[in-house]
Amino acid sequence: MSIFGSLNTAVSGMNAQSRALGHIADNVANSQTIGYKRVDTSFEDLVAASGPTRAAGGVLARADATNDIQGAIAQVENPLALALDGRGFFSVARPISTPAGTATTFDPRAMYSRAGDFQLNAEGYLANGSGDVLQGWVQGADGNMDAGRLQPIRADRTGIAPQPTTSLGLSANLPQGAAIGTGGTTEAPYYDSLGTLRTMNLTWSRAAADNTWNLDLAQPATAAGGAATPLGTYSVSFGSNGAPAGTIGEVRDGNGAVLGSYAAGIPGDALINLTTNVGGVAQPIALNLGRFGAADGVTQYAGGSYELRSMDRDGAPAGAFASMAVQDDGRVVVNYDNGASRTIAQVPVVTFADADALERLSGQAFALTPEAGVQQVVAAGTSGSATLQSAAVEGANVDLAAEFARLIVAQRAYSASTKIVTTSDEMLQETISLKR
């Protein structure tokens, strides 16, 4: 082993510890960076020659990724933020600078990230703090998720058309001991095809027959002094056809035709299908009185007067974009100011056989490499993938105390290598002095 060989070995040690110091510096600097994965350092022995005449080789520092090691998850106030708890990554697309007024274009490379601090950007895309856009399964015009490909998720900020009411549900109790001709009236609100809130009157009156009530449906007059528009008269009997006492056993229309009746073991709905007409537009509505033979919906039990329990309906007026949120199952939901909401996409999780082999990019992103294996795109929480936590972010997986300990070790090792350089230099000086 020559003095020059020792000198070269010491220099390789200094270089290796310098690289280790660089990894530590990166980790400390990014200790508060969302989704950052620290870089550890491992050392490899370099052998120039082995055996009895072994020559000094050196050391090589290698960066070790920790892409699959979980960072701490913290709740935040941003409803669009997402954190992954377990294995996997978000699929993201990196926008490419484009002229103003043109459609956004994206880098064609497949990219992934654990940085889930997503917010809506100016173009309506869900982008994290590094500007990378979240990708997922986007819902098509047919209402089905396109799970065959990943696309950038973009919020449609346009409003939604009104949704006319198609179903009304009534829950009430008719007093069993009421006198003939007495009863009560319920005003049932509903939305027409233009999103206007209308009213339908449901008037109950005790019929002459035992346990039978008449139901008159009418549309109130739309102008002062006008007449109401009848929508039909129906007969509802309780405890008939073997139904338990107090529950609906049969429903007939004004002509006496049976619209539905109790059948043991078959909990069918007591429905009245009617059609309103506002401004010449026919609107079919199904009035649900409950189930035949069941104590829900409309019943006839003891009581002093007509008792309305609840009245529900579907439909909504026209709505404008109000907000957006991501649920724990990954569904991206757009909310409107009329109370309506709809799902526009779902966020899957992407896993790899060797996540540590992904190529690191700036902005806490990773690029696909052949060594990482084929990407597996699955729903969150399936096939061993991570679960999602909404309104939360994953912090860096950096332990500052551990980094400071590594810093001290790297400093001491570097200092020791410099001592070898100094000693080798002194020995060389002694060798050169031999000629004097």
From TrEMBL:
Main location, first listed in the record: other
Domain Flagellar hook protein FlgE D2: 185-315
Superkingdom assignment: Bacteria
Localization annotation: Bacterial flagellum basal body
Naturally occurring in which organism (per UniProt): Falsiroseomonas frigidaquae
Keywords noted in UniProt: Bacterial flagellum, Cell projection, Cilium, Flagellum
Stored Pfam families: Flg_bb_rod, Flg_bbr_C, FlgE_D2, LlgE_F_G_D1
Keyword Nucleotide-binding: no
Name this protein carries in UniProt: Flagellar hook protein FlgE
Every Flagellar basal body rod protein N-terminal domain range: 7-37
